[in-house]
Each structure stands twice: as structure tokens, then as C-alpha cells.
Prior knowledge:
This is Coproporphyrinogen III oxidase. The protein has 468 residues and is of the alpha+beta class.
Amino acid sequence: MAEPHVVVIGGGIAGLTAAYLSSGAARVTLLEASGRFGGKLLAGEVGGVRVDLGAESMLARRPEAVELARDVGLGEELEPPSTAKAAIWTRDALRPLPGGQLMGVPGDLDALAASGVLSEEGLKRARHEERTPAVGADIAIGDYVAARLGREVVDRLVEPLLGGVYAGQTAEISLRAAVPALLPIAQSGGPLVAGVHELVGRAQSSGGPVFQGIRGGIGTLPEAVADACRKAGADLRTDSPVDELRRTPEGWQVVSNGEVLHADAVVLAVPAPQAARLLATDAPGAAAELRAVEYAGMALVTLAFRRADLPEPPAGSGFLVPPVDGRQIKASTFSSNKWGWLDRAAPEAFLLRTSLGRHREEAVLDLPDEELVARSLADLGEAVGLRAKPYDTAVTRWPSGLPQYPVGHLDRVARIRAQVAGLGGLAVCGAAYDGVGIPACIASARRAVNEVLTPGAGTRATEGTMGA
């Protein structure tokens, strides 16, 4: 039997993973519309130092990303953060991020009180947890936590943490999709704080770092996966937008740059709007669902300072900013403190970055670079007393950086997958479906490969070392 041809559309980490996992059982062609691979994983140079200009870490308590990094030869380059001592800039002061919380939902009220993040009134409300009716299929996490523990917990903890992950609004973010570990508590009507305390304790008992980085930046991961794909014989192409995707009696027809490719199976690893365009003819229902997926835009501002210009560099790994406080930035990461590899690579420099913009507040992305830098410096000056001028800066815009997961999102995903599966030989994957983090995107790609290739065909997807 001839080797099947799998075409992967999209060269972000999900598409690259799909190509890598397919390469043991199929002839693989990957088509990426832009001039590079990696999607939101992007390494660059600021102030003569290689840094991440996109995602900078990956969750280590899910196995997929760490295992992929090891599979493609980066095992020795994995490095956890040097410090995880983060803060929240709220109520006009930097306050320690309280321990014992899960995405901002507190499981240790004594730690919360000691942090000073909440006012006395807010803390009193949190200590008097309200019993609310059991949740049905889903609820907005902001609404659920506010009803249980008070609005201030949401505004000053859940919003900067969970809202920061999605660059979204907790009044819309699905509890079921974003923090599924809390769903049994919500559906049982049981105590929230005690439930979170148990979940956090269970996670901590597993040991190991919560996050991992890679020396040289997370942006090295897609480069390594692409190299592994090429070594396995995959044909990886940049500057290759797909103009047309059509079902044929023999399989699929893919048109890119005027070339017609015939595929036995296709993995669609592009953002929802692009997937909707390509599925409009053969899966109009799925296309309509995909068009309804909204995205948030953001900008990352990376600043390089000379340590000689800093009387006292900021301490800790950085801080989060609750939107309720009305600041310009929503977070800052002190990269040279957080990543030992970066500090060793550039001991005379101090690099940090800020983020601006979130869902429905993307107008900030239209501001010139100089203004985004100025706003970042103004907030940093007020937050940590930073008065020095950077010797180099970089602004990276992600206009559709993060898909939003509103209430009902997982039902929408199920409908999309059901309609796509009915076509045969086609699967979707990426951040729009199963989670926005790197491990979730990798797991999504693995699922897609398993759907389009015959089980037991000997692919890395079913026989390799990747986590389930």
C-alpha cells in the first residue's frame, strides 16, 4: 500500500507537532502562510540579547510540551524559572501574590490576608463564603467566584491571573473550559475555598516545577521541531498560504501558490477565521461556528537596560495588574530575574517586558511604538521606581493573539469536530479548541493526528513518548 499523504495547514506549534507526529507513518507536507514557523512562539534579539517576543514559558505539570522538547533534542536545555516570586500591583502598592490559589481563586485565606491584596472589607466578604445553587453545565468563572467570595476577589485576583492568561474578561470566560478542575466543586455546590485548597495541595504533592523554560527561549522549540520534521522527511514550506481546500472522491485537494496538492488526510492547524474560510464549502456549519470564535489582541514591550544605570534592579519575577486599577500595562515580567539562562547570557544587561491590551480593548495596539514604550515606562516608574532609560526596546504586536473561551465554548468545539469528522480524513487543532497553552496545543495536535491516521499505523502519535 502506498504511503498516505498528510497535508498540515499551519506552522505554529500545533501544526509542527502534527507534522512531527505524522512523519513516521505518512508522507507529510506542511504549509505555512507566513515567512516563518512557530506562530506565537517567537524568539528575537533585543539589546544584543536573544529573548522571547511571544510565549516565554510552558506549563510543566502537563507532560506534553516537556516531552516534545525532549523528543526533539532540547531535554538538556530545559530550565525552570530562577524565581517564581511574583506580585500584584494593586491598591497603590506591589503586594505578594498569595500562595494557595488556583488561577486567582483562593484556597488559603490566611495567605490571602497576609498578602494585603484585598481590603479589609473584601477579605471579610471572602471569609464568609456564600453557598450558591449548584452550577449546571457551565458558568462564567467571574460570576461564580463573585457570588461565592465577593467581587473584590474577582477584580484583584482572578481577573489579573485568569483574565491575563486569556487576555479576556472573567465575566465571560467559561469555568468549564478554562478551569475544569473547579467544575465538580461548582456542580456539587460544595465549599469553594476548601476545594481549591485540596486541589492545590494535590498539585504541590506531585513535585517538580510548575513551569519550564528553554535556554535561548521558548522560541527555540518550533525551530527544533521543524528540524526534526525535516530529518524525518517532511516537506515544510513557508510563504505558502492555502487558497482552497476541497473534498474529492479520493481524499482532499489543497491549492497553495497555484500548486494543487492531493492529500489522503488534512490537519487544519490555523486560527479559527482561517479555518472558517477553508471549510466554508465542505463544512458550512463548522465554518459558521468557527467564525463566531472571538480573539483578543495584545502588545508586548521588551526593554533592555544597562545594569550600571539601575541603582537597584527590580526584585522578583514580575507583577500582574488588575484592570480595575486603571493602569496602562496589565503585567510585567522581569526576564533577567526570572530566567537564569538570560542572566548568564547578558550579565551586564537587565531585560524586562510588559504587556498591554486585552479583549475588546485592542485600540492600544494602534498606538505607535514610542507611545507603548512611554506608557510602560510610566507605569514601571510608579510601580517599582524604575527611572532609567532603556538602551534598546522592541514592540511585538499580536493583533489576534488569544482565542476567547466564553460559556458554551466546549459545546461549540464539539459541534465543530463532529461536522469536520463527518467529512473523513480531516481534523482541526490549535489554541481555538482545547486550551491556549503550549501543552494544550500539542495535545490538540496529537488528537488530530490520531483522528486522521489509522490507529496502530506506527506513528509517533500512538507509539512515541508523548504524554496522553
